[in-house]
Amino acid sequence: MGYGFGIGSTLFAIGAIMAVLQANLVATNVVYALGAVFFTSAAAVQLRAAESRKPRRRWADPDWMSAAIQFVGTLEFNVMTIRAVAMSFDQTIPYSQVWDPDVIGSALFLISSWVAWHPIAREKRHRVIHGRSAFITLSNMLGSIFFGLSAWGAALLPDGTYQSLFWSNAGTFIGALFFLVAAIATVPRPAERAADM
User: Fold this and answer.
1) pTM of the full structure
2) What sign for the dihedral angle of Cα 181, 185, 186, 187?
3) 156 pairs with which residues across the strands?
4) What is the pLDDT of residues 71-87, one digit of tens each?
5) How far apart, in Å, are the Cα atoms of 151 and each of 108, 130, 164?
6) What are the CA-CA distances from residue 19 to residues 55, 68, 150 (Å)?
């Protein structure tokens, strides 16, 4: 799970850099789409882990609820990034058709991060790495906030320009870095793995 989120975050950060440099439109969108696939794969592992803990009532269990909301958010990112790849083959569209975090996916990430703060979610999710639980949760929350800022910046104004081109890219890049830090912290150390056996 940690590796999946880490690779996905790295690809999103690279995509943001490529967007700033106005690298090849298709290549930039493909990088984002691959990042979304890794995010979804990791989110699926997290949801499966939450399921394996057999919550009595799923929607009353913060761990399961956070994982489920995040999984749906990653699916939204998949749909939008793949759409951007398909659109980028059209030579007539402007460079602004590079993918940017959308409101729905970013809102779902933010809700998931907020639910993950619940002590029950943190206890279940971080039982092996409990000492880093607050740090991981905070990093994910900050990543979600910056993705939200990116979605705000990517909103198109009536004249077809971004609300804030700076935040469209900077929010994605900074958010991806926070997600990467959280992903690295999520990977159990050898001693923690041994203690869990």
Assistant:
1) 0.86
2) positive
3) 162
4) 999 999 999 999 889 88
5) 12, 32, 10
6) 42, 30, 13
